[in-house]
Input
Amino acid sequence: MHDLVEAGKISFKLGQITQVAGEQGDSPSATLKGNDGVETPIPCERLMPFFGLTMKLGPVAKLGP
Output
């Protein structure tokens, strides 16, 4: 993926998708909320969302064996 980004073949955006628009035959777009809180509409041909999880164990991480 990083090679495709560097070659300019795809665009990588990091943030939260807040809206997806477009019907069959329309130009699809997604609205992306970045870490700065700004929402930006992005025209797209394909959308490949990847959802990651962050393990935050809190006090459980401090428990011993």
Observations:
- The chain has one helix and three strands.
- The longest strand covers residues 16-21.
- The two ends are 40 Å apart (CA to CA).
